[in-house]
Amino acid sequence: MTDPDRHTHLPRPTATRPLLGLTVLVVEDSRYACDAMRLLCLRSGARIRRADCLLSARRHLMVYRPTVVIVDLGLPDGSGADLIAEMAKTTPRVSVILGTSGDSFAEHVAFAAGADGFLPKPVDSVVAFQNEIIGNLPPERQPRGLRMVADDPVRPDPLAYRDDMAHAADVLNVNRDGRMVDYVAQFLRGVAFSAGDHVLQAAAEDVSRARVEGRSLPGDVARLSRLVQERLADRVAI
């Protein structure tokens, strides 16, 4: 296993880039959320790697050991909590394991699985991002001195949002069984919440609610699919 943070030639943290020398693996299926993480890492000096599912993350971790792993709790091939639990028990352990989600209950789930910290979505504050990582680093790895940070929110590329809509449309076109409907509703609810797309968020929540209550939901899914297509056609701006 390669540990990039053991190389002595890595740059040292600075007041404006306190995460220099760290590698962050983001396990996230949303390109919009991942672009926010990319911008946060860029401003902080950290290198970023991305995995969009549990399988990809596990393959990555067989080869590399990043300093920080940030895991979305809802992934297309299972729960991010399972990956957190695996990493928490692995020796040598990743220095910092963080969960992330837009769901209110997810923080408890992440900590129960063994996470060191949690980043509630939308993750757009440079200060909050840096504080959560630095505060969970081993004391000898924490940068010293004052930090100088401009905390204006990061703004992900709107094209990344369209990529997420294309992903959701592909899933809905291919498979509308119960498990995939649950996944798409959860995925769109989180993406729309992060982007401030309240209409799409409400439609995704309606589908999730219908599934929980055991109601027939073809109309709810059709409405959700229509809203996704509108965003793909650029008739709705975020």
Name of the CATH class of the largest domain: Alpha Beta
Give the count of structural domains: 2
Count of individual helical segments: 9
Number of strands: 7
Any idea of the CATH topology of the largest domain? Rossmann fold
CATH architecture of the largest domain: 3-Layer(aba) Sandwich
Relevant terms:
9 helices, 2 domains, two-stranded antiparallel sheet, Rossmann fold, 50% helix, 5-stranded parallel beta sheet, alpha/beta, 7 strands, single chain
Characterization of the model:
- Helix 1 packs antiparallel against helix 6, helix 3 runs parallel beside helix 4 and helix 8 packs antiparallel against helix 9.
- The protein folds into two domains: 138 residues, Response regulator (Rossmann fold), CATH 3.40.50; 75 residues, no CATH class.
- The termini are far apart.
- The strands form two sheets. Strands 2-1-3-6-7 form a five-stranded parallel sheet, sandwiched between helices. A two-stranded antiparallel sheet has the order 4-5.
- It is globular.
- It is of the alpha/beta class.
- It contains nine helices and seven strands, in the order βαβαβββαβαβααααα.
- The longest helix is centred in the last third of the chain and has 18 residues.
- It is 50% helix and 12% strand.
- A hairpin with a 2-residue loop joins strand 4 and strand 5.
